[in-house]
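help with these tokens:
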Amino acid sequence: LWRVSDKAVVREMVNLIKDKKLFIADGHHRYEVGLAFSKTKKDPKYGYILTYFTDLYADGIVVLPVHRLIAGISKDLFPELTSELKKTFTLDEIGSGDKAGQFLLKAGQDEKRFVIYDGKNYTGLKRKDKGSLDVTVLHDLVISPLKKKIEDAGGKISIDFTKDPYYAINEVDRGRYSVAVMLNPTKITEIRDVSFSGKRMPQKSTYFYPKVLTGLVINVF
């Protein structure tokens, strides 16, 4: 980590990026809070926020999937939910967690695939869909209808997120969640296209790796 304090070099760096599009991949809430706070202060020193820049297409950037953990689904509802899913997806019974990963990897260019684990069975969902993000299809066609159905019946579901599929499976096995939904990662090009279209991605659509070390430029070493 090097400190760049040469004003000429700083100006050159500013000129290189000043006309380019900027994607906030992680930390948009912090940016919005920082922006709102700066507007309450007259001192221009409050007009800055610490950021980390990287090339959108850098080889070292990996986007990991964020899997869903859902609690509050009664096992009595599983047969009915399966019937509903068959209306919009092709369902495949998958024998094991290892095969679940293989099922996801075989997704075609215009195909969305998910795996639902209920503590006993792995069920693969696939659907032809061009132009939509996997997470958007998942929320629009699976999670949102499920949430409405359960709430209409007087129930309530809660959703948590994890990048670790083994953790998701273990949490369902422990009984802390009703089902885990595993999905493929969002592609960098998809993130770019959604941003340029002015749309918003669903909550927890991406997990960027590696993360910058906490306190890297604040802590004294």
Observations:
- The chain has a mean pLDDT of 86.
- The CA atoms of residues 15 and 164 lie 40 Å apart.
- The chain is about 35% helix and 20% strand.
- The two ends are 12 Å apart (CA to CA).
